[in-house]
């Protein structure tokens, strides 16, 4: 299945996993809109992708806060105006705040849930009509933290446990409409998530291009088959 001339939105597509997915899709000929809360960062990422010699699709930067439902609706309308349809929506934007419950502030809790969970609800609500029309694909980026809890992870675990369950329920809601819904649940990925500075010590981790390649393969898969939940982890993490 070719992806040439299909279209996609990737929230948080200016960096990390979202950027890796955007780069991979554009190289396949997908026209991709990447969103960021900063238009400057979205534009810088878009220009970087454009300069890649393998880039075949178009790239559109958009300023969107996923916590704003109206902003997400405007993003979908921008894609429909630009390219006439929406085939893929990758709900990738996320934040991570990690602290023992004694230290976790209500503000950090709210930001985590509003971004990682409510933001994805707004994403599907904003795009469901367009995806139904195209018989498209809605993909969320959850985490292995969506099934494995850990100390200091109450907010992040809650958001990702919720996201994993939400995605699976939406999959059941939309499958008879011809809309495929899935979630990818990565373990350790070499990104700047949570202010981490990527360095050579991260070579053992999943790389963003690995997630990009996985998404391309998922979107190319015959629509009769749906991997509805995909766990992915480093094959050889350091021994503890």
UniProtKB/TrEMBL annotation:
InterPro entries reported in the protein's UniProt record: KR_dom, NAD(P)-bd_dom_sf, Sc_DH/Rdtase_CS, SDR, SDR_fam
PROSITE patterns: ADH_SHORT (PS00061)
A GO biological process held by the record: monocarboxylic acid metabolic process
Entry similarity comment: Belongs to the short-chain dehydrogenases/reductases (SDR) family.
Name of this chain's protein: Ketoreductase domain-containing protein
Pfam families xrefs: adh_short
Segments forming domain Ketoreductase: 6-193
Gene3D superfamilies: NAD(P)-binding Rossmann-like Domain
Residue stretches spanning the membrane: none
């Amino acid at each position: 299945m070719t992806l040439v001339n299909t279209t996609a939105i990737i929230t948080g597509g200016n960096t990390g996993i979202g950027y890796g997915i955007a780069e991979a899709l554009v190289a396949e000929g997908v026209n991709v809109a990447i969103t960021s809360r900063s238009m400057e960062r979205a534009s810088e990422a878009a220009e970087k992708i454009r300069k890649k010699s393998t880039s075949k699709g178009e790239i559109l930067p958009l300023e969107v806060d996923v916590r704003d439902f109206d902003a997400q609706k405007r993003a979908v309308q921008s894609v429909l105006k630009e390219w006439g349809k929406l085939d893929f929506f990758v709900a990738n934007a996320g934040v991570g705040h990690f602290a023992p419950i004694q230290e976790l502030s209500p503000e950090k809790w709210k930001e985590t849930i509003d971004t990682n969970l409510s933001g994805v609800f707004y994403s599907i609500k904003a795009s469901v009509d367009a995806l139904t029309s195209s018989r498209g694909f809605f993909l969320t980026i959850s985490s292995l933290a969506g099934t494995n809890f850990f100390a200091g992870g109450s907010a992040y675990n809650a958001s990702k446990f919720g996201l994993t369950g939400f995605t699976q329920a939406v999959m059941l809601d939309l499958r008879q409409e011809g809309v495929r819904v899935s979630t990818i649940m990565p373990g350790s990925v070499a990104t700047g998530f949570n202010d981490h500075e990527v360095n050579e010590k991260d070579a053992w981790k999943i790389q963003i291009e690995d997630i990009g390649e996985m998404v391309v393969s998922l979107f190319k898969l015959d629509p009769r088959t749906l991997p509805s939940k995909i766990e992915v982890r480093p094959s050889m993490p350091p021994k503890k």
